[in-house]
Amino acid sequence: MNQPPAADELVFYVNGNKIVEKNADPEVMLLSYLRKKLRLTGTKYGCGGGGCGSCTVMVSTMHPISKKIQHYPVTACLLPICSLNNMAVTTTEGIGNSARLHPVQERIAKAHGSQCGFCTPGMVMSMYALLRNYPEPTTSQIMDALSGNICRCTGYRPILDGCKTFSKGCCLNNEVNEGPQKKKCCLDRRDEENDLPELKLALAGKQRMKVFQGERVTWYSPSTLKELLELRTKYPEAPLVMGNTNIGLQTNLHGVFHPVMISPINVHDLYTVAPDDAGITIGSAVTLAQLKTILSESVHKLPKHKTKTFQALIQQLRTLAGEQIRSMATLGGHIASKLAISDLNPVLAAAGAQLNLISKGSQRRLQLNKSFFDEAVSSGISPNEVLLSVFIPFTEKEEFVSAFRQAQRERNAYAIVNAGMRVRFGEGTDMIQDMDIFYGGIGSTTLSAKNTSQALIGRHWNEEMLQEACRLALEEISITPSAPGGMVEYKRTMTISFFFKFFLQVLQNRNKTVTLSGGATEYLSSIKDFDTEIPKTLQIFQEIDTKQPARDPVGRPIVHLSGIKQATGEAVYVDDMPPVDQELFIAFATSTRAHAKILSIDETEARQVPGVVDIIRAKDVPGKNAVDGQGTLFSEETVECVGQIICAVVADTSDHARRAATKIKIAYEDIEPAIITIEDAIKYKSFYEPFKGIKHGNAEEAFKTADHILEGEVHICGQEQFYMETNSLIVIPKGEENEFDIYVSTQDISTSQFAVAAVLGVPSNRIMSRVKRVGGAFGGKVTKPAIFASAAAVAAQKTKRPIRCVLERGEDMLITAGRHPVSGKYKVGCMNDGKIVAADVSFYTNAGCTIDESFLVLVVALVKMDSAYNFPNLNCRAIACKTNLPSNTAFRGFGFPQTGLVTETIMDAIAIKCRLPSHKVIQ
C-alpha cells in the first residue's frame, strides 16, 4: 500500500457553505467545531454523551449503495469532524432566523414550546430532519423523532402541539383563529433548498483514503476494503469508528485515549444487504435506523413464520436509544462492543446469528453464541479482523423468538435487564427440540443460560417445564452485588419474569390454551403490548372578544419574548458569548475521597500539558478562601466529600485545561469515619444545629385517646436538577482598581457578586455581575454558581486575563449535588373512622458537607408538613445531617415533595388500618 500524504484537507459543508479545514483534529467533535470555530452557537452542549439531544443537527450524505442523498439527525457532541468528509451539516441557523423563520421554528415557538429554550434548537433539528424524509409524518413518527431529545421545562405537551401541526391529521384545526395551525399544516418542500449539487458532484468522483493528523491522534479513513484490511493489520489495536456512539462515550466521559483511529465509513463492502433462501446478510456498517427499515420491509414481504427474529429485533429497535443515536450507531459496532446493556445481542445470539469476519488473506464465519461473549475464552473477533457483515437466519414454522426489555423509561434509556429467547419444537408436538436463552444487563456482557436451555430439551411445553426452567435459570444466572447498576433482587425477578412471558407468548402464538394453576386471565395480561398512546390534550380557555382592541394583550396567547430567538439559535446564553480577547479556560481537580487528609499535590505532569498557563491553589486566593454556605473554596489540608475542589488548571483551551486537571496527582490519607448516609449521621450524631421544630396541641395526651397508633418510616432518595445548561460563566478583569465583570448563569446574581468580592478581598461594588438568561436551573443555580465564579475570579486576578468556565455534565453533577434525601419517621394516632388525633414526625435530611440551603429546606418541610390535612395535635421536628457528600441545595419544591410523600404515606397507612378508602380518610 502506498503511503498516503501525511495529512489531508477535510472538506464538508455547513448550512450550504463549503468548509475546508487544513488542520483537522480527530479529537475535535462537530459540536465544538460549530460553536468555537464557526461561531454557530445554536447547537448546544447538554451532556456530552448523546443522551439529551441539545446538540442535534442534520447530516446529509450519499448512501454508498443506493447513491441517494440521505438526511438523518445526529448528536454533534459524539461526531468527530474527521468523519464528515464530503458530507453536509445543517444547524438551526441554516434553516431560518428571526427575519425569515422556518415553519418548524415558527410553530414550536408559537405553540409555546420553549421556556428556558436551551433544548429548543435540538428539538427543531430533530423535527426538521424528520420532515426532510417524511413531509407529512404521522404523530407516531413525530414522537419517535423526538425520543432522543430531553426538555426539563415544558413537559413536552406544547412541543408536541407545535410539531403535530405537520402531521396529516392537523388540518382538522385550521378553523382556529390563533396558533401554529393558522396558515398551512404540511411542510411545503418547495421552501427547502436543493440537495447540494456540489456535494453530489464531490461524492460522484473517485474516492481515496484520507488521513488526518491531530495534536495527539491520527485518523485513517480508507476508501476500499483492501485499504481497511491493511490498516487493520498494521494497527490491530486501533478502534474502528463509525457512528462513534460507544468509543465517543469512552473518550468524552471516561478519558480513554486512542492514538490511532480507523474510520471505514466509506468502505462500500460494509453496507451489504443480501437476502437468500436461508436468511438475510446485513453489512456491519448499516446503522440501527437503517436496520429497522430493512427488517420492517422484510416483515411485510415475507411469510410471517420466517420473520419472527426480525420482529423481535424491530421491537427492541423501537426503544433503543433515541433517533439520533440509532442514525449513527451501526449493527457491527453494537455487536462488537459486547456491552452488557446491548438490546440486540441477546436476540441475535438466541436466533443463531453468524458473523462474517475478514482479515488480510482469510475469511471465516463465527457463531454469535456463549463463547463469543465469554471473556475467559478467546473465541471472539481477532484484533486484525474486520466484521464484514451479519447473517440473520429465517425462523421455521415451529420456531419462536422473543425479545424482552425493562428500563426505567420506555425510550432513550439503558435497559436494566433485557433478554432474547428462542425455542424450536418437533413438528406437530410441544416437545422442545432446541432452545437458547440470553440475558443482558446482569453481568459485564451478554450472558447465556446454556445449561438451562440444554436441560429443557426433550421436555414438553407445560407448567411443569415452566417451574423447572425458572428454578434452573435462577441457579445458573448468578448476579453478584457488584453487577452493573445494582438492583440485584429486581434483576433476579426479571430473569424468570421474562421466561414466564416467553412461555405465555409461545402458547399464544401456537394457539394453545393457557392452563396454569391459579387461572389464565390475569397471566395473559402480562404479554399484552402496551403501546404508547398518542398524547391528547384538552385546553379550556375563554375566547377573546372580537371587540377587544388589538393593543390589549389580556387573554391572548402571546409568544414569550425569547421564543423565536430560542428556536432559531439566536438567543445568547453565557457560553454563546463571543470569545474575549486573551481569554483562558479553567478546569478543576477535585477530590476522589469522601473524607481524607491531603498529603501532597503534584503538579508536575499537569504543567507539561500543552497550553497550560497556571495552576490555581489556596495560596493564590487574596481574600477569604471560602464561600458562605459552601465551605472552603480550594481545599489544601482536608477534603470532606468526593468532588470537592482542590485546585484549578488554567489553559488556552478547555480541552487542555481538562486534560491537565486529570494529571494532577493528589495523595490522601483517609479519615474515619466517612459519613455517607442519614443512618450513618444518626449513628455518629453528625448534625447541623440548631434543630428546627413545630409543636401545637398536646400530642402526648391525644395519643392516649386514639383507637389506633401507627408507626413507620419513609426513605426518599435525592434527585439531580439536570438543568440543560451546565454551570457557565465568564470573568473579565477590567484592569482598574480590582474591578471585574462577571457573566454568569445563575438565579441569584447577588450571591455570586458578594462571594467573588469576599474571595478577592475587594468591596462588592467592584464586581459587576450580569445574567441575560439561564438554560434551566430549578434551584440548582441559586448558590452553587458562586463557587465557580469565585474560583474563576481568583484565576482571572492572578493571570490578569479573562477566564471562561463551562462545566462538563459529569463534573457539574459531581460538584453541585441536588435535592435532599429525606428519612421520615412517624407515629400517628387515629380513630376508627380514620380521623387523626395526634402525630409525632421526625424528618432527617442529608445536607452534605456544608449547610448551603438546608435550614431553609427544613423550614419549608415543617411548615408544609400538614399539607391540606388537619393535625390537631402535632409534634414535628426536622434535622439536617452533616455527611461526607457534596452539599445538597435548593430544588423546586424546597422540601415539600419529600415531606408531602411522608404525609401521604401516613394517610395511606391510616386507610389500610381502618379498612377505609383513602379518599374517605383524606376527606
TrEMBL record:
Keywords: 2Fe-2S, FAD, Flavoprotein, Iron, Iron-sulfur, Metal-binding, Molybdenum, Oxidoreductase. Residues 8-95 form the 2Fe-2S ferredoxin-type domain. Pfam families: Ald_Xan_dh_C, CO_deh_flav_C, FAD_binding_5, Fer2, Fer2_2, MoCoBD_1. Residues 212-397 form the FAD-binding PCMH-type domain. It comes from the Eukaryota. Coiled coil: none annotated. Signal peptide: none annotated. Its cofactor is FAD; [2Fe-2S] cluster; Mo-molybdopterin. InterPro entries: 2Fe-2S-bd, 2Fe-2S-bd_dom_sf, 2Fe-2S_ferredoxin-like_sf, 2Fe-2S_ferredoxin-type, 2Fe2S_fd_BS, Ald_Oxase/Xan_DH_a/b, Ald_Oxase/Xan_DH_a/b_sf, Ald_Oxase/xanthine_DH-like. PANTHER family: XANTHINE DEHYDROGENASE. Belongs to the xanthine dehydrogenase family. This is Aldehyde oxidase. It comes from Leptobrachium leishanense.
